[in-house]
Design a protein that fits this description.
The protein is of the alpha+beta class. It has one domain. The protein has 4 helices and 6 strands. Strands 2-1-6-5-4-3 form a 6-stranded antiparallel beta sheet. A hairpin with a 2-residue loop joins strand 3 and strand 4. Helix 1 packs across helix 2, helix 1 packs across helix 3 and helix 3 crosses helix 4. It is elongated. The chain starts with a helix and ends in a 13-residue tail after the last helix.
Length: 167
């Protein structure tokens, strides 16, 4: 189960690599509401699957493969590497996941969508590329990761703005 302490430590560790200069790291961490971020990560946690396919046609294959990590995880960031779109939309995506054990994992995903007026099909295949540690963080733009985590704080529950009501 995601614990607030582990989530906050994982984010601080990631920021230590993304923002090696102490002053900049402190500034970037101050922009995050860490307890709210932890709550958002717990809320968005899921059990990602290695393979999943669904369709609306009567004989379409509806299948879910094995768990990708064998633990719950939260998608932190994704970046489309390649995209093609006609009647069929195909994407190659790089994803960053925060796992329950406090580690970050990089995942490659191939997603195919087919959508017509009467039918739809969806297939997603994911494979773990590895754990993100130390110098691996240099493959990510620090501003992109910081922006993604700030969005978790702005919209903690499914990226929807919080509605505040005064009583």
């Amino acid at each position: 189960m995601f614990r607030e302490k582990e989530i906050i430590e994982a984010v601080k560790t990631a920021y230590s690599y993304l923002f090696p200069e102490k002053k900049e790291r402190r500034k970037m961490l101050r922009q995050l509401d860490l307890p709210l971020l932890a709550q958002a990560v717990r809320y968005r946690a899921e059990t990602p699957l290695a393979y999943q396919t669904t369709g609306s046609a009567e004989l379409s294959l509806n299948y879910q493969g094995p768990e990708l990590f064998r633990q719950r995880a939260c998608p932190i960031f994704h970046e489309t590497i390649q995209h093609h779109s006609t009647l069929i939309e195909a994407m190659y995506i790089r994803e960053l996941w925060l796992l329950e054990d406090g580690t970050f994992s990089e995942v490659s995903a191939v997603v195919v969508h087919y959508l017509t007026a009467t039918e739809k099909y969806y297939t997603c295949y994911r494979t773990v590329r590895g754990t993100v540690e130390g110098k691996d963080w240099s493959a990510y733009d620090p501003e992109d990761i910081a922006e993604a985590l700030e969005d978790f704080c702005k919209y903690p529950f499914d990226a929807e703005p919080i509605t505040l009501l005064e009583v």
